[in-house]
Amino acid sequence: MTEDTKTAPATEVPSVAPDANVPAYSWYALSVLVLIYVLNFIDRQILSILANDIKADLGVDDAYLGFLYGTAFAIFYALFGIPLGRLADSWKRVRLMTIGLTVWSAMTAVSGFAQNAATLTAARIGVGVGEATASPSAYSLISDWFPARLRATALAIYSSGIYIGGGISLAIGGLVVDQWNEAYPDGGTFGLAGWQAAFIAVGVPGLLLAIWVATLKEPVRGAIDGLPTKEDPHPFRGFVGELYTVIPPFTFLGAAKRGVGALAVNIAVLIAAFVAAYALTNLLESGEGVIFTAITDQWTLLAIGYYSVFCWASALRQRDPPTFRLTWGSPAFLCTILGYGTVAFMAYSASYWGAPYAERVFDLTKSELGFWLGGGGAAGGFLGVILGGRLADALFTRHLSGRVWVILFGLLSPVPFAIVQYTTESVVLFMILNVVVSALAASALGAAAATSQALVLPRMRGLATATFFLATTLVGLALGPYTAGYVSARNGGDLSAGVLATLWIVPIGLAVLIAAIKLVPPAMENLLDRARAAGEPVD
């Protein structure tokens, strides 16, 4: 951190004392962020209700559908989240969100014109890049609008957009597909299928919302915590530098600057990643062309993703030792985000495959699915994330590991209900359990987000959020839905076997979160000492 970025008086939005009432503007701004996140997940989750139609029209299978929703989106969402998280720590966060919202909304609309799997994959990659701006900016803004005592609640309210958006996406998607196909059985003037019209219908409104988002006021970074920080006078230098640390082959240049040894290790990691991808591709190859292609893309993209993350973390260790020390160098931080990643592994699978499963097993129309499954999932997720956030804040006042216990609850409690949900022959019971499972899994999110923010300094919150989302995407989103789809494809389209196959992650999550319960309290208590020891000029 340079002299220009240490501390400065508030100049735009007044700060609030930690024990003071939160200004009305903070709640207003939070409501706008929720709308952004709702649209974020409408554009992301609408693939669920459209999956069976895409499968039929494009001639793909469940493995590809899992890849499209998970890995194709997640790798680019995660990797671009790193430089964009850095930009959120140094530039105007409101402006960054406005640009990102415009990009992902436009790419969602472009998805509606896809005529083959390759084009649709490219469009969804664009959605992932645009959406990577949202949460690093939002988490940082919320941490500057709300005092520490309310952050889990505020972050949980923001995160409710996941469940509201996910539910609305099913309702909108189902309605648009059914109505469009009925009105235009031949595709209409532009020759579009119902699933294509649905993408366009949810993409265009985001372009209008971006105009509203641009009117939000930027709070002073860190002022609410007594650590007001000036804006970086050269914010894009860090952003470009981060791009060079995560995008091959530029990663070789970054490693070379750190020495011959660093370059050798970098090349060795890249080779190891692709050897692993090749081995997994051949291990899982079924001999069927479509599945083989999906597996190849799946593991190749993951190899690039994990290699790029290694490059970024290695560069961060040299460039910004305090931030590295409080994130990648902190067992408490890593256990927290990996623990939540295992929750996301199961939750993303269930939320994505719920609609295709119910459509196949219970023979429901898309409109019926959108209303009952989407509405129930939205209600359950909303209640779960809000109540989980409130519970996390309440337990945090009693013990510094209180929030981690809520993450653990979100991992374990949905399991028995999910087993019954994906084995029952009763559509009513399936819908009821969808609400229950959604609520229980959602309870962990606010607690995990607030814990990750509490383990770093204010100037590091954007990058901490990006790192947090590496776990939710590269562990949860990139692997969970694909695992379920792959198992289903290998078992004749049995999505019940596919979704339940994701439960193997539970023991791993349990072990990691038990470690986090022990590690988080001392990590919070000596946060400033560890930052000073790594070279941070904290007063």
Break the fold down into its secondary structure elements and pairings.
Layout: H1 24-58, H2 62-69, H3 71-88, H4 93-111, H5 117-131, H6 134-145, H7 151-183, H8 194-213, H9 235-246, H10 250-257, H11 260-284, H12 289-319, H13 321-326, H14 331-362, H15 366-396, H16 402-412, H17 414-421, H18 427-442, H19 445-454, H20 461-477, H21 480-490, H22 495-500, H23 506-525, H24 527-533
Helix pairs in contact: 1-4, 1-6, 1-7, 1-8, 1-14, 2-3, 2-21, 3-5, 3-9, 3-12, 3-20, 4-5, 4-6, 4-8, 6-7, 6-20, 7-8, 7-15, 7-19, 9-10, 10-11, 11-12, 14-15, 14-16, 14-18, 14-19, 14-20, 14-21, 14-23, 15-16, 15-18, 16-19, 16-23, 17-18
Walk me through the structure:
- The longest helix has 35 residues, at 24-58.
- Mean pLDDT is 87; it is low at 1-16 and 286-295.
- Helix 9 packs across helix 10, helix 15 (366-396) packs parallel to helix 18 (427-442) and helix 16 (402-412) packs antiparallel against helix 19 (445-454).
- The protein has helices spanning 24-58, 62-69, 71-88, 93-111, 117-131, 134-145, 151-183, 194-213, 235-246, 250-257, 260-284, 289-319, 321-326, 331-362, 366-396, 402-412, 414-421, 427-442, 445-454, 461-477, 480-490, 495-500, 506-525, 527-533.
- The chain is mainly α and 539 residues long.
- It contains 24 helices and no strands.
- The two termini are 13 Å apart.
